[in-house]
Amino acid sequence: MKRVALAIPLLLLACSNPVTVVRAVDDRPRILVQGAPQGADLFIDGKPLGQAVSYSGNPGVLLVEPGTHLVEVKNGQKILLSQKLFLGGGEQRTVVVSYGASQ
User: Fold this and answer.
1) What tens digit of pLDDT does each residue of 40-56 get?
2) Confidence of residue 102 (pLDDT cuts 50, 70, 90)
3) Does the chain have fewer CB atoms within 10 Å around its N or its C terminus?
4) CA distance 15 to 3
5) Which CATH architecture has domain 25-96?
């Protein structure tokens, strides 16, 4: 009787439905910002997105929609970088802030 009681749950587990896992690939373009000083802010198309160093690729990157975007890095009122980029699907672009020469 004990064997039958143990066999029933095992049979039910063996008859369970298959499990399907679906993973979506995010193919949006990525922007990495390198060389930005601490305290500098990132703006995309005029919208503030926080500290530019957060998107250095270690670990964060910025995902954007495909198309043309204005990328700006500002430290207070000072513009350290202003660049228009066209990005296609799955593309990764690194923008480099060279603020040392302009200070």
Assistant:
1) 999 999 999 999 999 99
2) very low
3) N
4) 18
5) Sandwich (2.60)
Identify which has the larger pLDDT, 58 or 2.
58
What the block records as the tokens of 89 is 């699907």
Convert the pLDDT of each residue in 65-91 to its tens digit: 999 999 999 999 999 999 999 999 889
Report the SS3 class of residue 10: helix
Residue 55: helix, strand or coil by DSSP?
Answer: helix
- Give the span between the Cα atoms of 63 and 55, in whole angstroms: 10
Strand (E) or helix (H) holding 9: helix 2-14
Domain ranges of the chain: 25-96
Classify residue 66 by its DSSP letter. S
At residue 6, the 3 state secondary structure works out as helix
E strand map for the chain: 30-34, 41-44, 47-51, 62-63, 67-75, 78-87, 92-96
